[in-house]
Specification:
With 636 residues, the chain is of the alpha/beta class. It has 18 helices and 32 strands. The strands form 10 sheets. A 7-stranded mixed sheet has the order 5-4-17-16-18-19-20, sandwiched between helices. It binds coenzyme A and adenosine monophosphate. Residues 141-142, 166, 168, 173, 279-280, 284, 286, 308-310, 332-333, 335-336, 339, 365, 501-503, 532, 568-569, 571 line the site of coenzyme A.
Length: 636
Amino acid sequence: MSYRSEYQRSIEQPARFWAEQANALPWYKFPQDILTQDNEGNYHWFEDGEMNTAYMAVDYHVDNGRGNQPAIIYDSPVTNAKSVLTYKQLQQQVALFAGVLKARGVTKGDRVVVYMPMINEAVIAMLAVARLGAIHSVVFGGFAPHELAVRIEDAAPKVIVTASCGIEVAKVIEYKPLVDEAIALSAHKPDCCIVLQRPQARAEMHSTIDVDWTTAMADARPAGCVAVKGTDPLYILYTSGTTGKPKGVVRENGGHAVALKYSMSAVYNMQPGDVFWAASDVGWVVGHSYIVYGPLLHGCTTVIYEGKPVRTPDAGAFWRMVEEYKVKALFAAPTAFRAIRKEDPQASELNKYDISSLSTIFMAGERLDPPTYLWTAEKTAKSIVDHWWQTETGWAICANPMGIEEMPAKPGSSTFPTPGFNVKILDPRGNELPPGHQGAVAIKLPMPPGCLATIWGDFERFKSGYLKDFPGYYCSGDGGYIDDDGYVYIMGRTDDVINVAGHRLSTGEMEEIIAAHDAIAECTVIGVHCPLKGQTPVGLVLLKDGVAIDEDTLQAELIAMVRKEIGPIACFNRAVVVPRLPKTRSGKILRKLLRQIAANQEVAVPSTIDDPGSVAEIEAIMQAQGLVNDIATETQ
Ligand code: COA
Ligand code: AMP
């Protein structure tokens, strides 16, 4: 089968194409309404289908001969633990935990927040929620109580599931006090908080809503799968937008299952029974799609790795995992490979392991820079696939479709649009740009199955955030171009979102936090190039008149504020005092211009600038402070 014909079919006959893909899944009732449009023109996939995602991902495989196949391999270099859970064992655990939730009143449509480290119980909790037809919202463990509280308040969960601690290399991070603080901060209070006690730190169970996981499981009766509609939500996953309030991306059951099942073969070239390892975290979309649902829906074995690419214990960790578990496809962020390369530039650790099981390394979360691409390709002699996607889409918008036809790769490009995604480059007025011209990367509607249906509780924000700029298109927020051969190049965000070690963060949110400091009159946060993490945030701050504060003290206080509010994961480690910031005459800080200076791009000074002299001044400061990328990048 050729990529071109598959892609063409998906664009010309979407309903027929996706009905065929939906056939690969065990529905309770196969949908008749494949693709429908409501009165407002919004698209829906598989609306009248009946199904249960946990059934499709677990029970179905047990019923069809995979009961004894490993479903989850757990490997934790930080606790020296390893284990294997078969599909049968996973089914038992999921059904029991669903019973625990059911006994606490969780029913179809209720929300359950999961705040857990990388352990099997995180996956068991997610699947148990799905089994009941309820909606999970997993929050990444690196987020601070304030972030967790914002999500609790928005999702209004009946239950929170957590663990006593997570382990970060050598640090034990106690989760329970963070959860307690978040619940105290949130106006919404859950009925119950289920805590898995880990031996590295035991949580204090002082609240009347606290329930011990192990005790509850011992008393539980297994619960069955609840049928849901194709358009019923499976989960809410919060992601950073341009403001301080994160966006709750809503994923529906039907489209999600169909898209992920299809992607496992079309993009990742996996067969049921193969071992797939996404070295991410269940708190991110990569973890949702390719640690949990994608591999399990496809009958593969997935890997839960509680460790880092380096320091747990060394830069050979990934290669050791590949050898030990015969991993066929490895998926990680480019940052992980930059970290490995930094510690082991000759890849001498690689020589210690047999990685012959591995056929492809997939990377996403941020742009795969050509040097990292070339290093990984040369050292491993494997196919390297850069693929572009977002929390919103849930699966790859562009990729080298390894299971359809491997295309020659071009470093710096995420290859071609995945079947179903009609990718266009638009100018600010919404006109399609010719090859080689940079513009806004947009996707012509309808998007394929699996993409976000709305923002939780805020359909207007969904429309204004994604559909308003270019009517008839989804606006991705990324800039880029398509070359003469049709290869797509994603060059970076066009808004105030940055990518730090493959983690998506809002500079707007950091600005709101540091602006609260007494000494600060005005501030902005920009992403500057970082050779390891891709980008790191830096605050440019203006002091209030008459304020005298030592710059180091101020910086330390601002770092502490961001760590407290967002968490260590923000990697906010630098603040620079500046005499003024370039602004428009109406007083808006010219963030895009600052982004362009930092990225060493051609600077476009808008005619609305208040004082043109402020540009040269800030440019000189940023140069002197080392905030400008040494390498010039293409304009956006
Ligand atoms: N819970 C609590 N804290 C966490 C955390 C978690 N789950 N994950 C990270 N943190 C903390 C870290 O301990 C660190 O804290 P510190 O500032 O007190 O040291 C901070 O957040 C930053 O973490 P990280 O970005 O992971 O930096 P690092 O220096 O510890 O590690 C890398 C560097 C490159 C090894 C690491 O960033 C990495 O593995 N990157 C790959 C990213 C990835 O997989 N992304 C998923 C998207 S696909
Ligand atoms: P997230 O929603 O956290 O997955 O982040 C999505 C954003 O990460 C995208 O909008 C891009 O800016 C960036 N991104 C992810 N994958 C890639 C990639 N392969 N190439 C370029 N940018 C990427």
